[in-house]
Amino acid sequence: MKKASWAGIALCIVSPVLWGTNFPAANRMLGDIDAFWLTLFRFVIGGAIFVLILFFTEGRGAFHLDGQGWRLSLLGTLGFSLFGILTLLAVQFSNPVKVALIMAMQPTLAAILNSALTKRLPPVYTIVTIITAFIGVSLVVTEGDYVGLVTGKIGLGEALALLGALFWVLYSRAGTTFAGFSSMRYSTLTMVLSLPVSLAITLIATSAGAAHVPTWDGIGRNWLLLVHIGAVISVIGVVAWNAGTKAIGPVNSMLFMNLVPVVAIVVELFLGYQPSAVALAGAAVVILSLVTNGVLVRRAARLAEANRVKELPARGN
Questions:
Q1: How far is residue 18's CA from residue 241's CA, in Å, rounded to a whole number?
Q2: What is the C-alpha to C-alpha distance for residues 223 and 221, in angstroms, rounded to an integer?
Q3: What pTM did the predictor assign?
Q4: What is the mean pLDDT of each run of 10 residues along the chain (317 residues)?
Q5: Distance between CA atoms of 189 and 34, rounded to whole angstroms?
Q6: d(Cα 117, Cα 112) in Å, to the nearest integer?
Q7: At what angle are helices 83-93 and 96-103 packed, to 10 degrees?
Q8: Are the C-beta atoms of residues 161 and 94 closer than 8 Å to each other?
């Protein structure tokens, strides 16, 4: 294997490992800094660093909006403001492991969205793994108590996480439509343009009593975790993922996203989380479904590429 491939694999491992610590870290801060203010702080820190990186890598011209300001702002609102707030509220109402598992369902949500928009069903194996993955998530969420979904006893946090994951899928899908925008430029501009919306939502929530201005003591107790989610997870994770995906391709890199819930589970177990046997079985079903689909997608892509290469000489004749 080429050195570039090994480097790409290493980078694609680093990112999910970092992202897997996101929800456990946030869970430890929510007692001092609520979901609204934590989202704002996270992307202020991340946005400032992204601005510096974009300036030194692509220059001042990369900050031109090219007439796409409102669209970039809307997508930033979906991908950062609403995604961040919803997922942290989900952690508050549920737990980091359940939220991480739902975040790992993003490729599945993307497949469903793509089918809806193109009006074409995905391959049979994708349909099967979508069904089994949702069954697994339902086992983790309910721990076998499906009556709780009907009565409203459980499910709010998971519903918020699912909505947040859908917003991220929409944001990611739209990123491919900006011709001439690098992934760094798209990430930076959307993150920065999301900040006024995040601030407005946070101030409205604070005035309504749904959020509370954090104290300096609370910030001081959590400053290392703030740096971790704002700089390490939001910046290093994204930069490493983009570089790794470029090296080994998006089909291969998506396989490593399955590490996110695994890392979250390991971290929470280390911190004292005791899942039920049903929840563990459900998590195993989800991860196995996602890995299976990823492997089959990768195999299909390789076969399609091999067939394309075989057809080239024929076309030349």
A1: 11
A2: 6
A3: 0.81
A4: 68 85 91 95 95 95 93 94 94 86 79 82 81 80 66 74 89 83 90 96 96 95 93 87 74 71 83 80 82 77 74 58
A5: 25
A6: 9
A7: 140
A8: yes
